[in-house]
Design goal:
The chain has one domain. Helices cover 78% and strands 0% of the residues. The chain contains 5 helices and no strands. The radius of gyration is 17 Å and the shape is elongated. It holds the Pfam family GtrA_DPMS_TM. Belongs to the GtrA family.
Length: 145
């Protein structure tokens, strides 16, 4: 019996929430322990989160798919999700570069929020890439043979 697409999408989205937390934690490590800038740190955190979500989706979302060729499947996952990754990263950069200006214009930009801006960018980017990533993962990475 095949899992309904709506259930797969819900599972994919929940795993994406877990990936969001992995992404933010990895970004904190990149910024504060590895001393990377927000852009390089974001590449690092994205790869950590993508690896987490690939593994979890392999185990829970797309069941019944061959478990062989994990490294190849992981590489296909990264390649297929490159569209979502570009959207995700683009939104992240947009938030970093326009967030203070937009919030300043409407009078809601206390200085303390500056430190939180990269994490807001991660969240906005993750949400924007979700649909792209689900469709491409389902059709290209976890398709049944």
């Amino acid at each position: 019996m095949q899992t309904p697409v709506s259930r797969q999408f819900a599972t994919f989205a929940l795993i994406g929430v877990g990936g969001l937390f992995v992404d933010m934690a990895a970004l904190a490590v990149a910024l504060h322990l590895l001393a990377l800038d927000p852009y390089g740190g974001r590449v690092f955190s994205y790869l950590m989160a993508a690896t987490f979500t690939w593994y979890m989706n392999r185990q829970f979302t797309f069941t019944g798919v061959s478990r062989r060729g994990a490294i190849r499947q992981w590489a296909r996952f990264l390649a297929a999700n490159a569209v979502g990754a570009v959207v995700n990263y683009g939104v992240y950069v947009l938030v970093l570069n326009t967030g203070p200006w937009v919030m300043g214009v409407i009078g809601l930009w206390p200085a303390v929020l500056t430190a939180l801006l990269p994490y807001a960018g991660v969240a906005a980017g993750s949400i924007s890439g979700l649909v792209f990533n689900f469709i491409l993962s389902k059709r290209l990475v976890f398709r049944k043979s």
